[in-house]
Predict the 3D structure of the following.
Amino acid sequence: MKVITSERWLQRQGSARKHRGLLNLLCALQGQHKGTMALCATTATGGSPLLGSRVSRAQRAPLLHTTVRPISLGAAAPFTLLPPVCASSFPSPSSSEDLSRAREQGTTTTANAQTQQQAEAPLQPSPAVMERRQQRQREQQFYKLAAVAASLGVSGLAILATYLRFYWHLRDAGEMPWGELAGTVALVAGGVFGMEMWARYAHKSLWHDLPSGWALHKSHHEPRTGPFEANDIFAIINGVPAMALCAYGFLTPNLTGGLCFGAGLGITLFGIMYMFVHDGLVHRRFPVGPIAELPALKRIAVAHQIHHGGKFDGAPWGLFLGVQELDEIPGGRAELERLVQQSEQARPAERQQ
C-alpha cells in the first residue's frame, strides 16, 4: 500500500487536530494544487509508502478513483486519519441542484403516497348520512310489512272467495260450471292486461296532465320523507272497483257473476304485481329478493327509470309494457340497453355497500 503525504505540510500545521472535512477537501482538490500536499489514499497497485514526494499529473489521476482506507501515522500522530473522499464525492453546483431536485421529488413522492393512501382508505360516512341510512332501513321494513300483510290478506281472501264460490255451485248444481269457470279465468287475464292499458292512460292524462291528479302524483317524483307518499292514494282508488267486482261476482252465481269475479281478481292480481315491481324493484321501497335478477324485470325497471328521467317527454307511461313503448320511440331501445348495461356494471359496487 502506497501512502503519499507531506511532512512539510504537517510541520507547518503543527497539529493534526483538523476537521475531517478539511482533509477530504484537500484530497478532493489534489489535482488543482501546484505544490505538494497531504494525500491519504491507497493506490490500486499497492507498494511501499512514498513520503514527501511530488506527484505528477499522470500519477495523480488514478488516485481520484481509488478505494481509500484509514491509516495510522504512528507515534508522531496519535490519531487515525479517516478515509478521504475523492473529488467526485463532493457536490458540484450541478450535483447540489440534483440534490435539491431529489429532495423535492422525495417530498412529492411522499405526498403522493399519502394522498394515495387516503384515497384508498374507506371513507367514513358522516352521522347525518348514517342517520339517513338507518331511517331508510326503518322505512323499508315498515313498508315491507305493510306490503306483505296487504298482499297476503288480499290473496288469501281472493283464494277463499274463489273456493267458496265454486263449492256452492257444486253443492247446488251438482256439476262444475265449465263455461263460467272459463269466463272467470279469461277475465282474470283480461283484468291484468286491461289495468296495464288503464294505467298507461291514467298515468299520462290524469296523473301528469290533470292538475288535480298531479297534485297527488308529484309526491312520487320528489324525495320521499317517510314510508308513504301522497301518490299511494291511487292504490286505494284502484282497489275500490276491484273489491266491488269481486263482491258482486261472489254473490251472483251465474255467468255475469263469474265474469265480474274474474275481472275483480285480475285487477287485484295486477295491483300485487305492480306493488312488488314498481314499489319494490324500481323504487326500492322494500327488498324483493331474487326476482330482481330476472332479465325481463330488469328491463322493466330501467324503462320506468327512463320515465322518471323525462328524456322522451315522460314516456314510457306504462309499467309492464314500458319496454314495448320505448321500441316505438326513435332511440328508445338504444337508451334502454345503454342504461341496462350501466346498471349491470354498477351492481357489484352496490352489493358491497
